[in-house]
Structures are given as C-alpha cells and as structure tokens.
Amino acid sequence: MTRWVPDELGDGYEQHTIPLGDDPDGEGVVEATLVRRAAPEDVRAAVIYVHGFSDYFFQKEMADFFAERGFAFYALDLRKCGRSRRDGQTGHYVSDLALYDAELDAALEIVREETAGVPVLLSAHSTGGLIVPLWLDRLNRRPGGTRGAGVSGVVLNSPWFDLQGKPWMRTVGTQVIGLVAKVRPTAMMKLPATDAYGTSLHVSGHGEWEFNTVFKPLNGFPVAYGWLTAVRRGHARLHRGLDIGVPSLVLRSTKSRFARAWSPEVDEADAVLDVKQIARWAGCLGDAVTVVPVDKARHDVFISKAEPREAAYAAVDAWMRAQGITS
C-alpha cells in the first residue's frame, strides 16, 4: 500500500517516498518523492508534473488548474532534488538521465493504480522537459508502447533541447566537458554567478512566488561536469529523433534575455534557455507536436506575470480539448 504523509505545501497536499535503492553514482541510498493534491470528486484524467534543474514542485496554482478540469494532480521530485535530496548528496546529480526511468516508472504505476487507469498526461519543465521525452521514447519501445502504459500526451514548458551559449560550447566545449567528466564527474564548473532569474521570481526579490530557497536557490545549484555530460548525451539522442508515441504541446517564451543581475526585461523573457533552440528541435519529439510561443513569458511560463501566465494556461486548455484529453 502506498503510504502518504502531509506535505510542506499544507492542507490538501501529501507526499510519498519512492525508495530507489543504492545510488549507481555512489552517493548512498536514493529516493524520489511523489506529491499529490487532493483529487476532485469526479476524476477524469491524471497528470504527473516533473520539475527542472535547481527546482522542485511548489506551483499550487498549476495543480488547481488541472484539478478544476477533473485531473488528479501529482508531481515528482526526482532523486537528489527538492524533497528527495539527502545529506551528503550532490544536488540534482546523475551520470545518466536514464537513471530517472526508475522513479518515472514507479510514479506512473502508482498514479495508474490510484486513479483506476484513467489517461495520464505528463507535464515537465526545462531539464524535466528533456528527461521526460527521453523516458517516453524508451517506454514507447516496450510492449504496448506509451499508449498501452496509459499515457495520453505531454506538455513541455520551456524544455531544454540544446545547450545555450556560443556555438563553440556545443562542439569543442562539449568535448572538453566530457573529458573532464571522465576523471572528475562531480567536480563543479566555474560559471558566472547570477541570481537574475531567481530574484525575478521570489517575493524576497522582484517576484510574487513563495518557495523553499534551499530546494530552489535563487542563484541555482552548481553544475557538475558529469551531470552536464549526461544532459549533452540526452540532447544528442533527442537530435537524432525520438518517437514518444503521444502528442505533445511545447510552450516557450518569444525571446531570451540573459543577464547576471535582475532588470525589468528579465521578467518578460526566458532568462535561462535560448528559445530559438526550443523551436528548432521541437520536431524531434515524434508524433504530433504543437508549439505555442507565449509573449512576455519567463523561463517557467507558469510562473510568469499574470498576462502571459493566463495565455499559457489558455493554450494548455485549448490543446487538451483538441486532443480529446478534456471535453
């Protein structure tokens, strides 16, 4: 039996720990955490949300949006992330993105059991928007495929489809990162410090959102060579073309704005990823892909300012109706 205990988000939210055994990367025992919102009386579908790097689930407004449409809402904090990180573990570190298949498989199984087999929608942000399609591609190659596993579609919110920055970082730079990762995988890269995006979100800075800054630091977690190498391998797999087996909706901002310190422009652009790369690689998902640029959206379109946020939710609503996921 799945054991649920109260979650830090308060009334109506519970969490369940998913044991994953010994860490293949040698950092002790690893666990993931599945969070659920109190379900509506008439559950017509379910959704599982997966966060990005330096992130975890806290977006109660998103959960309310889906619950109002008859969804049982769940969110997964991946191993070494958010609620799932344990003492002595390197935040968000994995040497292979396929390691996340274990908690994704387990979460899907739990959700299917709890919701009597209703269709399940996946939703993912940023790095989660890379992890989930790679998993769905592997799931689709199993007997019955993605549809047979009960998945009806996926919503990707600013998915990380390629490495941002200068072109040389995607060629020579990636090769150098891979060489360092072979000998010092958990060594941290020396990157310019920035809290521009974090302070644009949090109430202590220029934003309107409350979240746990231990789980989601305003300046982000440091980036390990081994982790970024795993991401680059994931990018290469995506670029060769996936077949996730279900329709997808890709949401992104209309522009990027990279900065080390906050300015008003950071509030109305993707301050983390290059939106042109998202547009370029979206077609590699396979099946039917719908891409919706959201004007003035932040990197996480669902915690943008009110107008773009409403536009993003309207796009999700329209897409789900068009796909027959909701009526």
UniProtKB/TrEMBL annotation:
<dbReference type="Pfam" id="PF12146">
    <property type="entry name" value="Hydrolase_4"/>
</dbReference>
<dbReference type="InterPro" id="IPR029058">
    <property type="entry name" value="AB_hydrolase_fold"/>
</dbReference>
<protein>
    <submittedName>
        <fullName>Alpha/beta hydrolase</fullName>
    </submittedName>
</protein>
<keyword id="KW-0378">Hydrolase</keyword>
<dbReference type="GO" id="GO:0016787">
    <property type="term" value="F:hydrolase activity"/>
</dbReference>
<dbReference type="InterPro" id="IPR051044">
    <property type="entry name" value="MAG_DAG_Lipase"/>
</dbReference>
<feature type="domain" description="Serine aminopeptidase S33">
    <location>
        <begin position="42"/>
        <end position="254"/>
    </location>
</feature>
<dbReference type="InterPro" id="IPR022742">
    <property type="entry name" value="Hydrolase_4"/>
</dbReference>
